[in-house]
Amino acid sequence: MRIVSLARTELSVLHNNWISDTRVESVVFTTRYDHLGLGAAAKVLYLPFTHYNSWGERSAAAHISESIATLNASYNFFSSYAFWGVSVGANVKAAYRDIPTVFATGQSAFSVMADIGLLTRFNLFKFYSSREPNLSVGTAVKNLGPYVLGEPLPTYWTSGISYSPIRPVLVAFDVLLPFSFDPANFPAERWFLAGGVDVAVTDFLSVQAGFRYKPASPRLSLGSSVELDNISIVANYVVDFNSDPRFSVETKLDLGDSGRAETRARVDELYVRGLDAYARGDSQVAIGYWEEALELDPDFTPARTNVDLVRNLLRLQESIDGIQIGN
Length: 327
Hints:
Strand order of the largest sheet: 1-2-3-4-5-6-7-8-9-10-11-12-13-14
Low-confidence stretches: none
């Protein structure tokens, strides 16, 4: 759902040293067309595994892996200059777990699942100037799908909030509640919490810290991101109290914004030109600038408000002039 708020098209590649010798490799592509956001992702978790026979001799070596492919679509409704809107999004995912038969038979499996959620953003107690809303609220249900090998998927409901009290600081908090459609036979896990903070140290450097509170499995993380001209590098160090510390690196490629920043700058320029023309008494010229701005961005409410206001004033002036001529 956050795709509809992305300023740029991005291609992201992530490498994560997970538990023990387990590795996770991910690639994510996201793009946006006005109010429509689209994304695709692939993630592979793999673990080298050696099989030993009854005499302790190595009989086989291979990889156990889980792969997930995801397609995402989201759309932002009711957006305007004053209100960011309400975004509705969904993921469709296909997953495959590969366990070689030399290790175990009948354990490989294929599954399909879906996520669906809502997101909105607005301003609350905002004491700095920015077009971006400083508060985001979202909720989603994840991993809806049929049973696999007679067992349900790890389905859960999550809700979260992020807030920027001052420009360089962003704080986020999530509540995750696993649930089961058959609790008598497959009870759900307990709820858990997650949170984090992002601090922009400079225009190109930010640091992050986070935590996850899950009964018997707490986790802390610390990281930083560096933004260069067309590439960003994100590094994270995670301490999980049930496993060894691990390190992950993500690279994001900036593929442009399809001209959105240029369009926004042009809209702002036309709006200011209209204000300047109106201040000089050139009402029709001002209306022309504002209408041109609306052609580029129909949701730019200040221009539409000014057009309606000035036209009403012109009609009122014509009525007054007509009355004076009649007298």
